[in-house]
Design goal:
Length: 402
């Protein structure tokens, strides 16, 4: 059994409880728990409504890993039951209900990516269906009796929709209660998640107190701004960097970040020391450093974390050669095409996009070019050796079928 660290310097506590953290409820109680030396159960839940996770999720996952490294136990809850009833998650749009098969497939992909950051050997995986699969109507009514509608309407999303006379499904009101019950079931000591989960975390504290458990601490991380520099990182908004993306794609997307985002990304997603970050800030403010050099350092840090140091070096060389020296990539994927073949079929076949509708969208955005000329329709006249560029970082080379 790993030893539990219980002696901390002020610097160590600051790094653990301040860096990459937006709020802790209750911080002093958590400090006392850490110094007591008991192995804490760290709850992290996810609804496998989609397959992929991105750097926005990684902010919290890195904190979980830090707690694991000092001996504490991560409890990953797969929300396979709630994913099948939908959840608005503060977005004012109810997520679609999924089949059990869809949920399982999504969860397997999600967990593979989750464990690129969090130590699998120190993680207990629990599926909600272990307990909710046995729930009867009596159990549901008993659970709902512990809360009031007024309490649920304290959630900002619900309150706004109620004030605007917009519908709120009863299943949505159930969701915070079900998430709270997860905390009871696994006897959570600390629940981790984004700042937007604060209401649900507090409902968990209240339910634990009601049933006689010690209330969990709420550990909340900031919402990472996406690559558009405006909204939080989100797959639905397309402003994300996926943690499972190829090294060149991650590197290239980091290089496209606005200069004013560099320090936040270093702070939340890397282990670069605070003193060095402060120097970066001073140099940027004084115009003493080229922001591109910092972005290249950031891109290498992230690719190394998610792939390997060698992959980071290769991605750096690729970016320099293709985007700074304007050379064509040596490793452009070759795709065999037939004369007169529709561009949508070519790109889907090559695996660089998932659907024909995505190709249509990319063409409309001016994000597809052939030999440097933007494509305006899916009807193209291929020539052997054409280089098709998709977005900023994907290339394929045309080989005409004989």
């Amino acid at each position: 059994m790993d030893a539990i660290k219980k002696t901390f310097s002020d610097k160590e506590l600051k790094h653990l409880l301040k860096r990459g953290v937006s709020e802790i409820i209750v911080e002093q109680e958590l400090v006392q728990l850490l110094r007591a030396g008991r192995k804490l159960r760290l709850k992290e839940g996810f609804d496998p409504s989609t397959t992929d996770i991105h750097l926005g999720h990684m902010v919290g996952l890195r904190k979980l890993r830090q707690f694991q490294d000092i001996g504490h136990q991560v409890v990953l809850i797969v929300g396979d039951w709630t994913a099948q009833i939908g959840d608005p998650s503060g977005a004012s749009i109810t997520r679609p209900m999924l089949t059990a098969e869809q949920v399982k497939a999504n969860a397997e992909t999600y967990m593979r990516q989750f464990f690129k950051v969090v130590d699998r050997s120190k993680t207990e995986v629990r599926w909600q269906s272990e307990w909710f699969g046995k729930f009867s109507l009596t159990d549901i009514i008993r659970l709902t009796s512990k809360f009031t509608v007024a309490q649920m309407l304290q959630r900002e999303d619900f309150n706004n929709r109620f004030a605007a006379n917009k519908p709120i499904a009863v299943t949505e009101l159930l969701y915070p209660m079900l998430q709270a019950y997860d905390s009871v079931e696994v006897q959570s000591d600390v629940e981790f998640g984004g700042q937007d989960q604060k209401f649900n975390f507090l409902v968990g504290r209240e339910l634990q107190t009601t049933v006689g458990q010690k209330p969990q601490q709420c550990f909340m991380t900031p919402l990472l701004v996406g690559t558009d520099g405006v909204h939080k990182m989100s797959k639905s908004l397309g402003n994300y960097i996926g943690i499972d993306e190829p090294p060149n794609e991650i590197y290239g997307k980091v290089m496209s970040l606005a200069d004013n985002m560099i320090i936040q990304y270093f702070d939340l997603l890397t282990d670069v020391q605070e003193e060095e970050l402060a120097e970066f800030s001073r140099e940027l403010a004084g115009g003493k450093i080229n922001p591109m050099n910092l972005k290249k350092r950031l891109a290498c840090e992230l690719v190394a974390q998610l792939h390997s140091q060698s992959a980071a070096t290769q991605a750096d060389e690729h970016f320099t050669r293709v985007f700074q020296k304007k050379e064509l990539p040596d490793e452009a994927q070759e795709v065999c095409v037939n004369t007169g073949e529709d561009l949508r079929d070519t790109l889907v076949k090559a695996g660089v996009v998932k659907s024909k509708s995505e190709v249509n969208r990319l063409i409309q955005q001016g994000a597809v070019s052939i030999d440097g000329t933007k494509v305006e329709s899916a009807t193209v006249d291929y020539k052997n050796g054409n280089i098709i560029k998709i977005g900023k970082h994907r290339f394929i080379k045309v080989v005409i079928a004989k």
